[in-house]
User: Fold this.
Amino acid sequence: MNNKFINVTLASPKLEIGNPSFNVKEILSVLKQTKSDLTVFPELALTGYSCKDLFFQAELLEDNLKALEELVSKNPYDGLIIIGLPYSVNNQLIDLALVIHKDKILGAIPKFNLANTKGAYEKRWFKSGYDLINQYDYIDVINQVVPFGNLLFSNKDVNFTVEINQDITDFNPLKSIANFTVNIAANTDEVGFYDKQRSLVKSDSIRHNNGYLFTSSGVSESSSDGIFKAMHFAYENGEMILEKSGLQLESYINEAILDLGKLDYYKRLNQNDMNLDLYQEVNIPEFTNNNFEYYLNLSKTPFIPEDKPYQTFKEITSIQKFSLIKRLNHLRLDRVIIGISGGADSTLALLIACAAFDELKISRKNIYAYTLPGLHTSDSTKSNALDLMEALGVSVNTIDLNDHIKDHLRLIDHDLKEDVTYENSQARMRTNILMNLANKYNALFIGTGDLSEISIGWATYNGDQMSMYNTNAGVPKTTVKFLIENFGKYIYDEKITNILWKIIETPISPELKSNQSTEESVGKYEINDFILYRFINCGDKKSRIFTMLKDVFGLSDTESQKYVDGFFKRFYAAQYKRQASSDGPKVFAFGLKANSDFLMSADVKRK
Assistant:
């Protein structure tokens, strides 16, 4: 266990059918190689799944027990083991899963749903757990009294359940309590089966709001009725952590890391009333493995997908596009007003507006785009804004605000000193003009501020914080850049793509005072977005995020503490701005809309 992460090994060992003596030696060999907290072996791993009527033979069952005794007595492993084997209770044969720590068997879980089709005649050999759990709360396993039945294994950090293969199809309320479920299986492969099983695991993880680990037997199982493929899956509430499969004669081993802190958070978010059947809670030792590098499993940019980037790009931009279309249709408007600064946020908003108008088959000339240069607008950002507007074929407009800003500041007896009034007056003036233009043209004023800015309050109240609709409301800063890059890659020609690249390479600044750099003021958005993700999506406390920043970004203690303190100070102080923010679509599983996604008093005081 390291900072509420658990390292697990999913293993499909090389085996010989009906030869437990060989199989246990291979299992012990696997255990000597791994340093994880938990190692999971397949269904009936000690004998092999394909023994068929050999399961009835006393000699095989005796060899099976000898192999189990050898596993327990010679166990070199410090973590928990989950393994499948056949077991006879008063001559009632069970397809059983055991949870083992060192030389102690902690619990025994029977298979409940026995396969009985397409050559898998399990009811011929085994009794269902449903027939036995009312008879036995404990069973004797190699002279140990072992809890038996529907079990929840737990300590102060974790709780989990175990099931066998087809038992995944049952709705087990116990899985809605557990951090994660472990499934041990053995299945012959066929065309499409991998995708089917993966979908089943993923959907069960979503259904019970938990983690899910799945391990199945490998190709060294019998090929009489088909080939067995090792499949290893790990999911967190439907999010893929590991998906691997192998057809190989040697042992097939993979590792995955589950985030128990995040899984706890999912449980708190999705509390359900449940009528639990009788179950036993089994105390397990605390995990002590602090050596694995859990942070290798963490992306620096969790809002940017590492796989299927085009699909994610299409999903996000479709959400933005159709949310804007819905609002325009609802208001019966066919015009929009948008301020273009030459920065990334307004660029994305303009690209979404163009996509929406194309979908509606309305001329892009009905997109009234304005660049509003002020006292500190640079030539490069103004040029980027004008070049982009012209290339996209929208209505291009410029209103120079320099004299207007100075007149306003003089009106309120301001000395033009670059203070907060100086900055915010400019932002509010731009918003005021765009609002009035929207009235003039009977248009919808589109905001451009992103989720990262509103999370830390980097927006002027009743300035750029306000609009009539904000398509960027659910998009973090790191994702803004990702989307613009993909507009260039997949949608637009070289001319527009070159403009887009210039924009995303421009340092981030609101340009409201001399030499202003946003990231010098609030820190790097990549790090702030990481903190935002860990806090809102994973429910992490500050001390956990502090450690992650050091490990993931290589920050010092001082740097990590500065980022954590800075983010949370700004986050809590900015709630009053979020409570007055414009409508806009949620893009990810969470958002910060104060009336729906993140409910919090604006008077909260947290350090």
